[in-house]
Design a protein that fits this description.
Elements lengths: L1 H21 L3 H6 L5 E6 L4 E9 L3 E5 L4 E5 L3 E5 L16 H10 L3 E6 L5 E10 L3 E7 L10 E8 L3 E6 L6
Antiparallel strand pairs: 1-2, 1-5, 2-3, 3-4, 4-10, 6-7, 6-10, 7-8, 8-9
């Protein structure tokens, strides 16, 4: 009888652990590995390899050495190298994807954007404006700095179509 009671208790504890795990988000799973080297594959098949620097509710920041890459969580297909640690957000105030885009816009950071597309699609430029669901990008030619004379036009991109934003590693995130 005691063995049966012990087995019932173990089943109950295991069920509670499964219920608790079901409440965890992808961000919490990733947040437990901040500082670790990960491989992150996006929906487009593009893979990024680097040290996980920051995890917010909608995005992660990966340091690849020569560049920093901002990745929307909604575009991640899989992650390799994740440990078993989990961590809740340190603050109740979310630092949204739009807020990160506004920082990049304010700093006039030169970016390479990968877009969600059937064929590989990338844009290079500086964010001029961040709307509620879009960005306006001042396009730049490859290998040139961000002076107005090097402007190649302007394009509006829905933020839901952004797969990655790569910039120099000296951003303020």
């Amino acid at each position: 009888m005691q063995a049966a009671s012990q087995q019932d208790l173990e089943h109950h504890i295991n069920e509670l652990a499964r219920v608790e795990a079901a409440r965890l988000t992808m961000a919490e799973a990733l947040r437990g590995s901040v500082g670790s080297r990960l491989s992150i594959v996006m929906r487009t098949g593009t893979a990024f390899h680097g040290r996980l620097c920051r995890v917010e509710t909608e995005w992660v920041l990966l340091d690849e050495g020569s560049r920093s890459v901002l990745l929307p969580l909604a575009m991640i297909q899989r992650v390799q190298g994740l440990g078993t640690q989990r961590a809740r957000a340190p603050s109740k105030i979310p630092y949204t994807f739009a807020a990160a885009l506004r920082v990049l816009s304010r700093n006039r950071s030169a970016l390479v954007l990968e877009l969600d597309s059937i064929r590989p699609a990338a844009l290079r430029g500086v964010i001029d404006e961040v709307g509620s669901d879009y960005i306006q990008l001042m396009q730049l030619s490859d290998g040139v700095n961000r002076d107005r004379e090097n402007r190649q036009g302007s394009v509006v991109v829905p933020t839901g179509g952004l797969v990655s934003l790569a910039s120099s590693p000296d951003n303020e995130f």
